[in-house]
Amino acid sequence: MTLLLEARGVVKHFGGVVALDGLDLGVERNEILGLIGPNGSGKTTFFNVVTGLYSADAGSVTFDGTDITMAPSRVVYKAGVSRTFQRSRLSLSLSIFDNIMIGNYKRLNQGLWFNLVQARRFQT
Predict the structure, then answer these.
(1) What is the pLDDT of residues 70-107, one digit of tens each?
(2) Shortest CA distance to 49 belongs to which of 60, 64, 36, 35?
(3) pLDDT digits (tens, 9 = 90+) for 102-122
(4) Helices 112-122 and 96-103 sit at what angle, rounded to 10 degrees?
(5) 3-state DSSP helix/strand/coil percent for the chain, to nearest 5?
(6) Residues 58, 9: contact at Cβ < 8 Å?
(7) CA–CA separation, 124 and 104 (whole Å)
(8) C-alpha span between 115 and 61 (Å, rounded)
């Protein structure tokens, strides 16, 4: 069994607070998994470690066979892992289409001409 996302022994402290204490988790390709728990149980901290927003104090995270444990968030994003925040704020100066495309940037990164032509298809 090859896991798409694997966390092994992930530890994260904030001062004296232990947010993650040896977390092990594996997600198979095409699997849908829910992560539930009470407030303060480390769910968001785990996602922040996986996406490179926080660095793990110990343990490892691999995605599609690549170690992303200490990778910066831009590298994790390019590998195919991203997240949304609980508070979504639109850029009010942009259109709804442009706000949506911000989240789809990786898929639209084909060059200016391609992006302009593709954008017209969605605006009608």
Answers:
(1) 999 889 988 888 887 666 666 778 787 777 777 666 66
(2) 60
(3) 766 666 555 656 655 665 555
(4) 130
(5) 30, 25, 45
(6) yes
(7) 19
(8) 33
